[in-house]
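Handout for the seminar on molecular recognition.
Each group receives one record of this type.
Step one: identify the two inputs.
Step two: read the structure output and locate the region that could contact beta-D-galactopyranose.
Step three: write two sentences on what you found, then compare them with the reference statements printed after the record.
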Amino acid sequence: MGLTKAPFGEEFVWGVSTAAYQIEGGYLQDGKGFSIWDDFVRKRGKIANKENGDVACDFYHRYADDLQLMAGMNIRHHRFSIAWSRIFPVGRGEVNQAGVDYYHRLIDHMLALGITPWITLYHWDLPSSLEIKGGWTNRDIVDWFGEYVAFCVKHFGDRVKHWMVLNEPMVFTGAGYFLGIHAPGRRGLNSFLAATHHAALAQAHGARIIKSLQPEGMVGTTFSTSHVEPFSNRERDIVAAKKADALLNRLYIEPLLGMGYPTDEIRALRKLEQFMKAGDEQNLKFDMDFVGVQNYTREIIKHSYFVPYLRAKLVTAQERQVPTTTMNWEVYPESIYHVLKKFSAYPTMPPLMITESGASFPDVLENGKINDAARVQYLQDAIAQMYRAKQDGVDIRGYFFWTFLDNFEWAEGYHPRFGLVHVDFETQQRIIKASGNWYADFLRD
Ligand code: GAL
């Protein structure tokens, strides 16, 4: 297809996604409290090259220039997150006015430049004081989160009408509370299951609060997804792939749709029951205005006796000798088509948006330019796959590219670069990459 945005329609939302901890820096600036990521990056051996997000892209100080750059690239929608501990340094109670003022300035600036703000309320940086009380494993977090959400809607809701409750609950509970490779670095089935149930309750509770305070607002939440395929046609690989699919793609969306947790595929999930109270099943459900799907790759799954609970493991992209990104993920934009089809097949699914899609490649700076042809290709293919799903009847309303600036990629540090804009982390110089120029042309009216 000759790629233009016209066939997506006038109303289609095109934007970029970012996250507070990955870009802001200013980690102790103006009264901000510690978050679990501020703690986690200080633990030995957790982050590649001992890097951290203390400064990151210094967006906290440079937002005005960066938003100007964004507007100059014809980007009219920015999905960003609020750092909970900038507003409530210890998670609740006393407010840090300087943090609130920062987000006021950010929002006002975006609006002045014609950029619509889409706020993610939780992109993984839980205030440390709440983690000390158990974090997502403590059921009280549903109320703590609710208080924070209500505050944000009351203070920013006069100008912000688009909300995303959580970013990828499966990733922050799985990597943070089961595998221990992300903050807060906890491990084990019990902490994972407790965190899962409370995050699932919080995603509906948060949305309910937004809607009650701002009935005209657009409320959604986001999910990590992967197109899952069995390694072979053998029954045990097929069973393994179904389990992996239940974990990676179904665990959070199904309770939200009122279908409960996918316990048929994964027996260990039946233990979620110990955290359930009367009324929970109903409270897990909420009719979102949209659902955000985030996708980077597919997974090929095979049976394994050695993996507890799942009896399934990934066949890595290296083992399969397929092209990969610097995250070692297979380059597979078709996955976007498949996950959109899969999500839209749920009968009560609201309209979908791609709230993250992108790829990290080893960018080379040459004569002051970054000709990231592989990322240009990825972006074009991703959009084409989304169009393919749209033509099949999928109700898709928007696309947010991950991400605007190269940034702090969690446990991987600064090595993987995902941006449309290159960042020199020594000098904080920004250079628009070829992909950024391509997107800017694509978005031009
Ligand atoms: C997502 C996450 C983002 C970003 C991206 C690339 O899972 O929401 O914060 O890191 O992956 O890995």
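Reference statements: Residues 74 and 440 are 5 Å apart (CA to CA). The two ends are 19 Å apart (CA to CA).
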